[in-house]
Specification:
mainly alpha, 2 strands, 52% helix
Length: 184
């Protein structure tokens, strides 16, 4: 659209009285500008139609959001009410519900086997079985953390005296039982 408008404006400004031969046909500015303006009008009409279509679609979607749940409920009501009358359902544009085919014994067995295999593969258990699962500790290994070793302390040249006095034997009270073993 912008290119078409620029061509029209440029032709009117720079070549208003010129004659052009384009594709074997002779054109003047007075003939060429209305042709280009027709294209610009067509593009504008398409853009307006597209905008109008977007607005119309948005309006329709809003109405569908409001009416959709009501229509769905009404369809279910009709299907339940006339479930045995095929012609009446056809009059409403609805198909009769299909009868569910009974499953064979093999199909039931296959379903059960698949469910069990899935349960085993996932490791799922019942609530009571989960309660019986307890952790089991087979052994505990304690790894000591040692400080980095440093050089052994230098021995002092003079002997060190202990800060507390040496332990003295407890005095023995006469007549008290002896804790040691007695020789006879």
């Amino acid at each position: 659209m912008a290119l078409v408008q620029a061509l029209i404006a440029g032709t009117q400004k720079h070549l208003p009285a010129s004659t052009f031969t384009l594709g074997g046909t002779s054109y003047t500015a007075a003939i060429l500008v209305p042709i280009l303006q027709g294209l610009a009008n067509a593009i504008t009409a398409v853009n307006e139609a597209q905008a109008s279509a977007k607005d119309t679609v948005a309006t329709m979607q809003g109405v569908e959001a409001t009416v959709g749940p009501v229509m769905g409920a009404y369809k279910r009501f009709i299907q339940v009410t006339f479930s045995n009358v095929t012609q009446t359902l056809t009059d409403f544009g609805l198909a009769a519900p299909k009868a569910r085919a009974p499953r064979t014994i093999e199909q039931k067995a296959a379903t059960k086997a698949k469910a069990e295999a899935t349960r085993i593969a996932r490791g799922t258990t019942s609530k009571k079985q989960k309660l019986t699962v307890k952790g089991n500790v087979t052994g505990v290994t304690v790894t000591p953390i040692t400080a980095p070793t440093s050089a052994p302390p230098a021995s002092p040249a003079t002997p060190v005296t202990p800060a507390s006095p040496a332990a003295q034997p407890a005095p023995v009270t006469p007549g008290a039982p002896s804790t040691g073993s007695a020789t006879k």
